[in-house]
Amino acid sequence: MVELREETSVTSRFRLGLPVVFASLTVCGCGDKWMMSLSYSKNEMMESELRDKPKLQAAVTKAVNTVFGDAPDRMRVPKGSGLRDGGRYLAQQWEYVGDSPSPHPTDQSKTLGQYKTHPSGGYALYRYHCLHCHGLSGDGNGPTAPFLYPKPRDYRRGVYKFTSTTTSKPTRDDLRRTLNYGLHGTSMPAFIAQMSPTDIEQVIDYVIFLSARGETERQLVAEAASAEEKDAETTITPQLAVETATRVFDFWKEAETQVLKSVPPRLPSTRESIERGRELFLGQTKEKLECAGCHGPKGVGNGPSFIDQDVFYDVVFHGKASEKQELYEELTAFDQVALKSEAAKGGEGWVDVKKELAATVNSAKGFGPIKAVPMDELLSRLEARGLITRDRAGADRVKSKVKMSDPRVVDLRAERDLWEKSLDDWENPLRPSNLNQGIYKGGRRPLDLYWRISKGINGAKMPGHLQTFPDQPERIWDLVNFVMALPYEPTLLKDSQAPAASPAPPAAPKVASH
Amino acid sequence: VRFWSILFGVMAILCTAAFVYAPFHPDWWLPPNVSTIGYEVDHLFFIILGITGVVFIGTQIALFWAMFRYPAREGVKAFYFHGSQRLEVIWTIIPSAILVFIALYQMGTWASIKFRTSAPKVQPLAEVTARQFQWIMRYPGRDGRLGTEDDLHLVNDLRFVKNTPVVIHLKTKDVLHSFFLPQMRIKQDAVPGLTIPVWFDANKATPTGSEYELVCAELCGWGHYKMRGRVTVYETQAEWQKWMDSAIEEQSRAQVAEASASQGN
User: Fold this and answer.
1) B155 min Cα distance to partner chain A (Å)
2) What is the 3-state secondary structure (H, E, C) of B159-198?
3) What is the ipTM of this complex?
4) What phi and psi values does residue A259 have, to the nearest 5 degrees?
5) pLDDT tens-digit profile of A351-402?
6) How many other β-carbons are positioned within 10 Å of the β-carbon of residue B219?
7) Backbone angles phi, psi at A78, to 5 degrees
8) pTM
9) Which residues 122-161 of B are in CB contact (within 8 Å) with A?
10) Residues of A in contact with B147 (CB under 8 A)
């Protein structure tokens, strides 16, 4: 009987549960109405630049919110943003920030050309197509971002790699090309079949909005970093935010006029032109270009000026801690040991690790998330490299075996620096392109390649070469012709030798940082 | 006592209603067929749908009746019996016969859309490489050969001429994908390491302002839904050639476009 009662209670629980399941099934996919309101994520610069300064943090947040709205569904745009119709297509609700903010409900049935405007504008489209990688705040850290390499673009710096302009801001046309055709060789797909041209324009509006919001926030944080906590309210004012935002939007507007338009006529891709390009690539001309230093003598992207390919793969694809971070920790520890050893010659150079080093090493900043390495492991690594000796009796005592200027230590420092120089502005490890594959992230039109070589890749290590040939820009076409021919003629670089290792890749082009 | 039988009965009626209603609603039904072979595929589809529909209704009635007629009742003891051999033989033979019938009946259609010997003897229109998450298309340029410098590289953009047999070479760079043209009733998995020829045609050009679809029909990862492409069918070879010429011209662009800010396509 007892069993029977249990049976009935299970059944009645099912009877209660089923309607709930059905009810939730009918609600699924009902969209916005049922969704909780989303809010922007906190900028990590707040912690790194304004740690323990809650008032300044609050002032920055407040200032940004006054200009851009405190949540995506309460969006604002400053006047004169340059967005189409003052930001009319960002979302359903919009308002001006001016003397008196006033809401303007939008007409949902408004049509643009032959396509009906999406009722919820750029924000809705962004949420559907882009958010899962680029994140709600445009920080390139959405839920699916960890699956990808290269990582999705963080818009908040306002720097874009592949532009046609002489600055690091793209034109709308550049963004349009990226959205329509994707970035080959990356995870950015082509959206031409997913969205109508009208949709694409709305997404462009929204991306510019997010980018401007993020860049304004960055600039305000930078401003706040040099301010006093007690003056938070008076230094970081909404007025300052409006001015900053206006300046950022102005850069976007200027970008439209800064396209590198003066392109000499393309030289025909003759054998001679390709050969001239090959000589340029290998640095055999008097300009001594260093293409092969990064792209490698065979153009496969393994030049000596970059961190070793295997190390790169280990870090990026096998999740190993970055070599550089380990080197940082090791070198910090070693420097301390060496320093104290020198000072403690009376005691034969022995240093008590626990007493002398623990604080220093743990406060040494690594890159990315700081890894608290057990002191013991760190010392074992140093010992394995033959840099220190540990006291046999007590492991707490160590002394350095070599001087700080020992070639081995100097080599390690060079390696560490190389890592640092192999990062892009977003601090992600980079690879020079493998030119044999015929995959060009920034576009495969000869014009795109001309732009890439002449003005470089913003935020990355590819420098611009226009200034190398001030009087003969047409020679860049020789390089373009060579690069375009290489995938089909791998024999072009069959016998080329590795150049002597240059200590560092050429400096990134100095582009205006806006 | 009869809660479960009623619940299952209602569900069965709802399913049957949906089944009967589907042909009358364009979104619930197949998109219009535009290919030559599509009629045969649809014919097979309807036959299978009919058989499964009849079987579904029959088994649902039997299930409902069994549950309704013999629910658990207080004081009534369940009893055990070995079953009916005759019944088991019947319900094994009928489905087997149906399966054998379908297997034999579809052979001709299958051969004409899948056997390599029946592939039309034409130059491949393009090489289509699937990757997470898009269709990379490479058309032989003016020289008609793939793998040369004048290849046209496009993404998610398939275009051909009506009433001409089309062959594409299907590949994948990463995982399994499935190349599916709903309007042309053709579906083919892309398998890593293989180059698979797929052929189809269309007897109706895409009306202006709209397009046919290319979708991925194999769950290939989190961005599966993004793998959609546009399919445009032109009325004449000349129109197609005009598009091809302009696409090649755009791909070989070496100067900034003067008047138009938008790139067009």
Assistant:
1) 7
2) EEECCCCEEEEEEECCCCEEEEEHHHCEEEEECCCCCEEE
3) 0.82
4) -65, 135
5) 777 666 655 554 444 333 334 456 777 778 888 888 888 877 666 778 777 8
6) 12
7) -70, 155
8) 0.80
9) 132-134, 136, 147-149, 153, 155-157
10) 488
